[in-house]
Amino acid sequence: MHISLSAIEKGEMERLILVTTLGLLESLESRVLTIDECQGYLFSPYTKSILDSKEVDKAIIAIIEKTLYLEDYESLLPDDLAEYIEHLKRDILDLIKTREAPVDINEAKQWLDE
Question: Strand locations in 2-111, DSSP E?
C-alpha cells in the first residue's frame, strides 16, 4: 500500500509542514509518540535537506532544525524538554497565522494521494 501527502503550491506545502510538525509535537508531549518515532516521520536531517531543496521558508526550516535537538534535551536537559516543546509549538502557531489558507481547503485530494 502507498499513500503520500503532497502540495501543489508552496504556501500549501508550508502550512502542511507546520500543521504536521505541530501534531507530532502534540503527540510527543502527550507521550503518544516517542522522539524516535517523530524523527522517523519528519524530524530528521533528511527532511531538512528536502525542505532546503524546495526553497521552503527559512523560518520553517529553522523549526525543523530545532526539532533535531529534542533527543539532546531528552537526554541532557530532561527538565527543560517540556518547555522546549512549548516554545516550538508557539513558534509554529505564529508561523501558521502568517500563512494564507489554500483557496479551497475542502479539496482533500489536493494533498492526499494514493
Answer: 4-5
Running DSSP on this structure, what letter comes out for residue 4? Answer: E
- Residues 27-86 have pLDDT tens digits of 999 999 999 999 999 999 999 999 999 999 999 999 999 999 999 999 999 999 999 999
Q: How confident is the model at residue 7 (pLDDT cuts 50, 70, 90)?
A: confident
Instruction: Compute the distance between CA of residue 1 and CA of residue 40 in angstroms, rounded to an integer.
Output: 18
C-alpha distances in Å from residue 61, one per residue of 20, 56, 57: 13, 7, 7
In terms of Cα–Cα distance, which of 31, 27, 6, 91 is closest to 57?
A: 91
Distance CA 114, CA 106 (A): 18
